[in-house]
Amino acid sequence: MKEELKIIILEDVQYDVELIEYELRREGIKFISKQVEIEEDFINGLDIFRPDVILADHSLPKFDGVSALEIAKKIAPEVPFIFVSGKIGDEFAVDMLKKGATDYVFKNNLTKLVPAILRALTERDELTELKKSKIELQIALQEKEMLLKEIHHRVKNNLIMISNLLELQSHYIKDKTDFNFFRESQNRANSMALIHERFYQSSDLKSIDFGDYICTLATDLVNTYVNASGQIKLITDVENIMLDIDTAIPLGLILNELLTNSLKYAFPVTYSCEPSDGTSASHATFSCRFEDLTSISSSSTVQESANKNSMITVVFHKISDKFELIVKDNGIGFPKDLDYKKTGTLGLELINRITKQIDGIIELDTSEGTEFKITFKELEI
Prior knowledge:
Keywords: Phosphoprotein. This protein is α/β, with parallel strands linked by helices. Helices cover 47% and strands 22% of the residues. The protein is built from nine helices and 15 strands.
């Protein structure tokens, strides 16, 4: 409590003012008081005098305590407001407490005045500390959010830089297999960069809309692999489900590998080549994948695809307490003699390992094309 309190006394009877001040001095309270009787003086007192406590009578000839309480709650809501009256009833007192009064004391029992003031000031100080702590906590949370945003932003930029370096390096690769390794690594970096981008753009920084992420990543991959042919139709049937980073990143990598496998292997095409000098009319027919089309010379012509209605479908739903991610295509189908759980290919090895990491289950259906279904629960931290 301050060494000297500033107290506004809303009272029109001078004798009652003197009794209040006597009781304060008797209890050892050091104070400066300002007596007011009308609304204008009361408002000026709040603005200029800036009291620590307001003591108000219930009724005055030209003003009243109820109106004073309403004004005080607007101008100085943190200042304790105590009714000191001889005409206040219990029902009225309760109603005033509901409207924001701190306490009430009867004039015929002023011995309770100082305890009421001290209690009110203690509660005010505690509330002030609580508000201060809340403000400090909000500032700390904002700083933490800014830091997390910055971390996600920097990680995303670093992954994009890695992707760009892989792309630059791939220009010097002559072997097709090595070139594809570089491009696949580039796509993996891009898939993770996209997740970090979504996180620093998210309002809560805890989760991202994975349905939206699926649509963006799938579209980007299709454009990367088949922009030369444009013959694959992408279908997405996804829910707008929020996933945290510990689930989103591994699931994003799984999605990247499943889509890449479909784009690379599901839809072989045939093309014909003419000599670059145009001297021969004969055609040689070859078989290739959509991914090969970008390397075919300008004199080559795509004749047909194995399936003119080539489609890749991505499904993502929550069923009960589990999530289902399905990537399926209507291509040539998964090789019958290949065990996807024991294959030596990096893509399928990543799918198996990461699915175990999120405690998921893989199911493969080859009855119509190839369908991989990943079932999992969101990881509990």
